[in-house]
Amino acid sequence: MINFDYTHPTRVVFGKGTIPQAGQLVKEHGGSKVLLHFGGGSIKKSGVYDTVIKSLNQAGLEVTELGGVQPNPRLTLVKEGIKICREKKIDFILAVGGGSVIDSAKAIGVGVPYDGDVWDFYMEKAEPKKTLPVASVLTIPAAGSETSWSCVITNDEGSLKRFLDHDVVYPVFAIMDPQTMFTLPAYQVGCGITDMFLHVFERYFAAEKNADLSDRLCEAIMKTIINNAKRLMENPKDYNACAEIMWCGSLAHNNLIGQGRGGDFGCHMIEHELSGLNDVAHGAGLAVIAPNWMKFVYKHDLPLFVQFAVRVFNIEENFHNPEETALRGIKALREFFSSVGMPATLKEIGIEEKDFASIAKKIRKHDSAKGTVGFFRPLTGADVEEVLKLAK
């Protein structure tokens, strides 16, 4: 187990009927002039918007609204939010929605006190020192942004999708009511389930070999996602299944399960380029890439892939042919993604072979000196192209 330094500052308020607490919680954290940040009309149709507005008004808070967040949130809207916050002297940002809305809010938060271009943080030209307080009312479990130190933004110019990981962007609180999932489209739920599963998966396939507790935590979360995804596909209003999935989404990306072990994140880096290029739903892109990444790298640590198959998908181990066990685990993962409505090939999400070379070239490298992506089995640009060919 490698050394680590772990702090988690986000307060989680979880369960039925918790959304009306939003106004008082904002006030407790020093908010008086609030930017209410959200996406389209779904929170208005579901009634979440009215509940939040009523709560903020009852707390005596001044509210400015900024809607319009898209999946793969755009830098242009982030800059508009920064401008609004400065002009109106906003002192708190409340994101109501899923990961895209929360990520956009985080980017606005770090951009307001910064004298330069907020995109500097995403291009590793600068490091954020402070932020406006950001909190969330989660309505779409997926990215885990409600309790994470990460945020991902897409720059319209150049179709670049880049991430910022920094302690300063942890939200101060997250309100999580599983009932908000009841009205979500099945495809959106499937994308979210895939995204959170990959957050665990990418930590599970780590170079560190002595992190038994982290292994077991990862396996428990992945198995819980698999079991409750099936229940949700059968009954989208199964409260207990919604609750399990919503909590898994946060645990998948709040950094707890990665302590002492690191992770890989090559699949995420490849998918970011797919989303940047063709505005692909993040979960859908990950569902295509992950099984094919596995096919490309499984011989690098065959015992770990066997362990994944046996412990996560309950596959009977073939002691005479471990490779067969590992390949059955990869097949089981592909079938799981299909069961939640996810695509299997790049063709299905509009990515063509002519784009493979440019995708491999644009990826943000984990090791810029070597030009590689990922840590479990670092991938060169040529390796990335091979993974994409397997996924075509």
Features:
392 residues, Rossmann fold, Dehydroquinate synthase-like, alpha domain, 2 domains, 6-stranded parallel beta sheet, 15 helices
Description:
The protein is α/β, with parallel strands linked by helices and 392 residues long. The chain has two domains: 11-180, Rossmann fold, CATH 3.40.50; 186-391, Dehydroquinate synthase-like, alpha domain. The protein contains 15 helices and eight strands. A six-stranded parallel beta sheet has the order 1-8-5-4-2-3, sandwiched between helices. It has a two-stranded antiparallel sheet with strand order 6-7. The longest helix is centred in the middle third of the chain and has 23 residues, at 212-234. It is globular. The two termini are 37 Å apart.
SSE topology:
Elements: E1 11-14, H1 22-28, E2 33-38, H2 42-46, H3 48-58, E3 62-66, H4 75-88, E4 92-97, H5 99-111, H6 119-122, E5 134-138, E6 150-155, E7 160-165, E8 173-176, H7 186-204, H8 212-234, H9 239-251, H10 266-278, H11 282-297, H12 302-313, H13 322-339, H14 356-362, H15 381-391
Helix pairs in contact: 1-3, 4-5, 7-8, 7-9, 7-11, 8-9, 8-12, 10-11, 11-13, 11-15, 12-13, 14-15
